[in-house]
Specification:
The chain has 3 helices and 3 strands; from the N terminus they run E-E-E-H-H-H. It is an alpha+beta fold.
Length: 120
């Protein structure tokens, strides 16, 4: 670890909120580091989806946000001087882990719209 003082005004603080959005940007979740939703923005047309489908998409985005937050935490601690062994013991994800998980989730999740028609 470095001997930097975290109380210094110029010390970079770790973010308290993270976001993830659907492929179209019509659903955006704002979460805490572990994926707990703090806010959700949903375009009106998305409210016409099946409730289970919408809930699953929101949950998927919360998990995506948590994965990216874990990666950000890892990078933050790396910059603070933590060793790879320490980070491994903490269970923080790597870039490869997060990327692989996001690809798998996108492939498993039904991302095609229910209709190509748009409400006017």
């Amino acid at each position: 670890m470095t001997d930097e003082n975290p109380d210094r005004p110029d010390a970079e603080e770790f973010p308290q909120e993270f976001t993830a959005s659907s492929l179209t940007g019509s659903i955006v979740v704002r979460t805490a580091e572990r994926g707990l939703p703090l806010g959700i923005r949903i375009e009106p047309d998305q409210l016409q989806r099946e409730p289970d489908t919408l809930a699953n998409e929101i949950l998927r985005l919360c998990k995506k946000s948590a994965g990216r937050a874990g990666l950000a935490r890892r990078e933050y601690l790396e910059q603070a001087g933590y060793t790879p062994e320490m980070l491994s013991l903490a269970g923080l994800p790597t870039k490869e882990t997060v990327a692989r998980q996001e690809i798998v989730e996108e492939q498993e999740y039904e991302t095609q719209p229910d209709s190509w028609l748009r409400s006017v």
